[in-house]
Specification:
The chain is mainly beta. It has one domain: Beta Barrel (OB fold (Dihydrolipoamide Acetyltransferase, E2P)). 8% of the residues lie in helices and 47% in strands. It has two helices and seven strands, in the order ββββαββαβ. It has helices at residues 50-54, 111-115, and strands spanning 2-7, 12-15, 21-31, 38-46, 61-74, 80-93, 117-119. It has a five-stranded mixed barrel. A hairpin with a 5-residue loop joins β2 (12-15) and β3 (21-31). The longest helix has 5 residues, at 50-54.
């Protein structure tokens, strides 16, 4: 799956039980407009290089490509909720001039955005959740 949204906080470095590094962060994706606007939060575990993660911070607008898995959990009050967990090997910082959802946005990728993206083969990584 592929989606775009804003980071809810700075990426946090972590390691799988086999010692492979990855970064954890939440992304809010907005869809619809006005009274029909909805926000979907996703928990992302991204297997990306350190220099890519260093270019991301709370509020950054990013594109994420990965595999989404719904996970049911129980809150402290006993209610059940669904979390959308994404394992990703691609995260790209979206520049301000790309934010309008135009079809040609990918063609106008700036050098800064290219420097803050990476594709990593995540097949050898353990799922961290």
């Amino acid at each position: 799956m592929q989606f775009r949204g804003n980071l809810g906080g700075d990426p946090v470095a972590a390691q799988t039980k086999n010692g492979k590094p990855y970064y954890k962060f939440n992304v809010a994706e907005k869809t619809g407009k006005g009274q029909y606007e909805q926000v979907t939060w996703r928990r992302v575990s991204a297997f990306i290089p350190e220099n890519v993660a260093a270019g991301l911070s709370r509020g950054s607008y990013v594109e994420v490509v990965g595999t989404e898995t719904p996970r049911i959990f129980t809150r402290d009050d006993g209610t059940q909720e669904v979390s959308l967990d994404v394992m990703s090997g691609f995260v790209r910082l979206i520049e301000n001039d790309e934010k309008p959802a135009s079809k040609s946005a990918k063609a106008a990728e700036s050098p800064r955005a290219r420097a803050a993206s990476a594709i990593v083969d995540a097949e050898d990584y353990d799922i961290p959740f």
